[in-house]
Amino acid sequence: MRTRHIVGAAVAALAVPLALAFPASSHGYISTPPSRAARCAADAVAWDCGEIQWEPQSVEGPKGFPSAGPADGTICAGGNARFAELDDPHGGSWPTTAVTAGRPFTFTWKLTARHATTNFKYYLTKPGYDASRPVTRADLDLTPFLTVPYGGKQVPSTLSHTATIPTGRTGHQVVVAVWEIADTGNAFYSCTDVRF
Q: Which member of 7, 30, 139, 155 has the lowest number of beta carbons within 10 Å of its beta carbon?
């Protein structure tokens, strides 16, 4: 009887390092226009991005945004302290992609794990947003400018959504995209810096 407990404890002790050595198969991020995670993975910023540069698809946090989900100031990292670099505004110096208000614009996701999906939602910062500060709910128009229902279906490995960009913005703004998973308590967060 004692031998079984010792063997069980040994197996459990070995399982923890193995689980840490082989993380989950990751998930997804906006690749076009480049999100903050995509820019870090491409080494397209002037600072060290930390761990996100090796796993841009892993910005996972609690779902239910905006009423739940990551805390204000941690939205771009999905509330995950490992990826806090994504929340650092770097004085407003994240590179931007040009957009035109009132015109269609396409967002493309690269999905490395094809989860059953509830929806994708896209939010935009409000007029007057200060790009030198981390994104908070108070900075965002909490009505998504695009919602794509998915009804629990599994996503493909690449997926694009086209939206009409809201009007009334100027300068540097941030799009917060949320991919809500149907069969877990989590979602994936992707912040893309744009310039009107």
A: 7
Q: Which residue in 194, 192, 196, 195 sits closest to 75, CA to CA?
A: 192
The pLDDT tens digits for 70-83 are 999 999 999 999 99
* 26 exposure class (CB count in 10 Å sphere: 0-12, 13-18, 19+): middle
Beta bridge partners of residue 180, listed in sequence order: 119, 187
Q: What is the pLDDT of residues 83-140, one digit of tens each?
A: 999 999 999 999 999 999 999 999 999 998 778 999 999 999 999 999 999 999 999 9
What is the pTM (predicted TM-score) of this model?
0.86
Side chain identity at 147, as an amino acid letter? Answer: T
